[in-house]
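ok so I'm stuck.
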Amino acid sequence: QVQLVESGGGSVQAGGSLRLSCATSGNIYYPVRMAWFRQAPGKGREGVASITSARTTTYADSVKGRFTISKDYVKNTLYLQMNSLKPEDTAMYYCAAGVPYGFGWNVMAEYKDWGQGTQVTVSS
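replied:
not stuck anymore, here's the structure
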């Protein structure tokens, strides 16, 4: 099990950038896959991007070319660099960690541990 704490959310105008961080503590060696999910008001939680321990990355089509997921293995911190933000990116963003169960990178059941979330608001 790991503890995950997100930070870096805020309010920006469309076209702006934010970098989210997810500090990891506890059993830092177990997460084979980590990911960012988001949930907009009235909508389900959707996968944004994931990264494996082999540093393989996957992105949702809606963020490809704009968002970059990365992990600093010395600081045990997961990042999400978000550029060219759009109003439709407005959501609560969550960090998740787990081992692959085979459900798919963007399925919530794939992940055992979750952070509390950080709010991102993009105005037009």
